[in-house]
Amino acid sequence: MICEGSGTVRQDDRWGAMGPGDFTLVDSVRPYAFRFEERFRSVVLQIPRGMLTSRCAAAERITAVPFRATGGPGAFVSPVLRALAEEGRALDEGPARSVTANVLDLLATVCDAHGNSVDAAGWAVHRRDLSRAKEYLDERLHDPGLTLLAVGHALGFSLRYLHQLFQEAGTTPRTWLYDRRLDRARTMLLRRPGHDAPTIADIALRVGFKDPSHFSRAFKARYGTSPANCRTSPGS
Which of 33, 34, 199, 221 has the most neighbouring CB atoms within 10 Å? Predict the structure, then answer.
């Protein structure tokens, strides 16, 4: 929460400007950034993930979405957060637990309400990010050493977010990559062979398989025929 000054927050291609009293959620396990052009004062409340997500289904979809202190759901929560920051340390353990639980319930309620209004935009961001991830993987099918950690780092995604994107599409990153490699190999095999046509072993390497035997077994398991038969019988 910004107490004085102003700035911007960014996470997962979402960003927003924030002024005094405004607050936002950020997920500290994924890349995020605050930028301030002038002197500022802020309050940071650290909440264990499970304590919030168990109360609020929308929490992970609305990071970097500012809640305004001047109106809407944020107007209810901002004064409570400020009071908690200023007076919370003076509370005894029992009242502190009760107050904390009530604050989290209030925060979860307004987050869910706010989440309904940004779901459509959130899904659009997810579709775009999924398309970026697929394009990145597609350009690197040939690399047998490609790791999901490297993919996430290059795209600015956490592994958790990368898996979430593909889960929403009904698959996993590894499954999609594996199937795409076999699809690319089949396309190469079905091209009219010439004197300079790549061998099956060459095709296996070009789509990221180190072992031609492994490639042949995987190809047959997917298409019901061997790479050699696919090349000689294009209709199979």
Answer: 34
> At 154, is the secondary structure helix, strand, or coil?
helix
pLDDT confidence of 123, banded at 50, 70, 90? Answer: low
- Residue 8 bridge partners (DSSP): 17, 35
pLDDT digits (tens, 9 = 90+) for 143-180: 999 999 999 889 888 888 889 889 878 899 999 999 99
Name 208's Cβ contacts closer than 8 Å, sequence gap at least 6: 141, 142, 143, 144, 146, 177, 181
Residue type, 187: T
Interatomic CA distance for residues 200 and 183, integer angstroms: 14
Cβ 32 vs Cβ 10: under 8 Å: yes
CA 116 – CA 101 distance, rounded (Å): 23
Cβ neighbours for 162, distance < 8 A, ≥ 6 positions apart: 133, 148, 151, 152, 155, 173
pLDDT tens-digit map of 60-74: 878 888 888 888 878
